[in-house]
Amino acid sequence: MNKHSEDYYDGYDETDGEGIEAYCMICREKTPMDNPEAIWTRRGAPGMRGTCSVCGTVVFRMGRTAAHMALSRPDPVQIADTPRVKGQRKAPPPTVTYINYSVPDAEFATRLSDDLTKVGIQTWLAERAVDNVQWATGVHPALVECKRMIIVLTPLGLKATNVTDALTFFVKNRKPIFVIQLQPTDIPDELRRKPRFDFAGANYRRAFRELVQALNE
Q: Are 142 and 128 in contact (CB under 8 A)?
């Protein structure tokens, strides 16, 4: 085992993530963890997630194990910029808007994100969430922490797995969704009653103003 591996391993005696105990909030004691898998928090801290072998509740245990040795530690995920002023209380986290789009619409999404940032609306571009990391929450931290979504609708976009998966998460958690229609597209049932803005025409500025007004209400 090289020096890097020794630093990476915290002394658990398992070699593949098995044999781990974790505290179960239901059983109120440490129990063996079934089906353990290596996970990461949004700050890049390692841990294990599995189920209680007694009651089946999802349980966690923080710390590195041998199961992490073959994995690359993800960079910490900074969802929002929260300025801190010396002598003042910590400000509440700002409302960050998740921009959900498919790869062919990346140029438009980037322009939209830049323009929204210029008027003081923080955004998270979905392209940053493309990875194979097993996050502690089960989904990318941006999906959990972003308060609302802008979805860029195009026929190809509605077929993209990353777009539909993110949309499903927001719908399930009843988070606000704003629809940008970039091309003529059949509107899915779950989006028919959501605020919709027509960016398919030539008047980008007008549609953008309407979107900003809705986001600021």
A: yes
Rounded CA-CA distance 168/1 in Å is 43
What are the pLDDT digits (tens) for 90-126? Answer: 656 678 999 999 989 999 999 999 999 999 999 998 7
Cα dihedral sign for 143, 82, 40, 104?
positive
Residue with tokens 């349980």: 59
> Of 35, 34, 43, 77, whose CA–CA distance to 62 is shortest?
43
Query: DSSP characters for the chain?
Result: --HHHHHH----S-SSS-S-EEEETTTTEEEEEEEEEEEE-TTS-EEEEEEETTT--EEEEES--GGGTTSPPPPP---------TTSPPPPPPP-EEEE--GGGHHHHHHHHHHHHHTT--EEEGGGG-S---BTTSS-HHHHH--EEEEEE-TTGGG-HHHHHHHHHHHHTT--EEEEE-S--PPPGGGTTS-EEE-SSS-HHHHHHHHHHHHH-
- Give the separation between CA 5 and CA 80, rounded to whole angstroms: 33
Domains of the chain, each with CATH number or no CATH: 3-68 (no CATH), 97-216 (3.40.50.10140)
Return the half-sphere exposure (C-beta side, CA atoms, 13 A cut-off) of residue 37: 12
Total-model pTM:
0.71
